[in-house]
Amino acid sequence: MNDKKIQKIIKRTIDIILAPIILICASPLFVIAMIIVKFNSPESPLIFKQMRSGYKSKLFTMYKLRTMINEEDANGDLLPDSQRLKTWGKIIRKTSIDEIPQMINILKGEMSLIGPRPILPSYVEKFDDYQLRRQDVLPGISGWQTVNEWETPTWEKTFEYDIYYVDNFSLWLDIKIFFRTIYMVFFMNRTTAEYRPTFDEYYEAK
Q1: Which of 142, 204, 133 is nearest to 167 (CA)?
Q2: Would the pTM of this model clear 0.70, i.e. be above it?
Q3: 35, 54, 85, 199: which one has the fewest Cβ atoms less than 10 Å from its Cβ?
């Protein structure tokens, strides 16, 4: 068994150990956040579920605490995200409390604590061979792209950072990302990322 395989086994073991610990420790804040969500949007479900593309593009259902209201326009269509994301939702996102339900995805083996962010299947269908390489590892809650490009993400840099992680995976890199993520959550005055085009818009503009 080579060194990379051993490190991946250790990585999975760490995921299985840390996920329930994080889930338990974060539960008081998560309960408060759920109360806030329910108070501001009582008719909508607390947990947001969406199909995402994971390891080797295998589909799975990703869980998040909902941070947007389901407000519609006169035609019955959902309003743009910017209008449905209220102050309380922005706070929940900035503190990353909305990511806590993904500990369930980790325990199910669908995600890891560290890896490229899980992405929509409709995007992955349009990836070229280079872009598909980001699917060669389990998606994560935080990753190399996340800690390097929080405020102004672009698709070009996203692929660059994600594929760098795939090519340079090590436990040391995971540890570095883990602690940089903690620093971002607790000590950085993060702002909501500026608008970037969807992958469909990016793909059509190429």
Answers
A1: 133
A2: yes
A3: 35
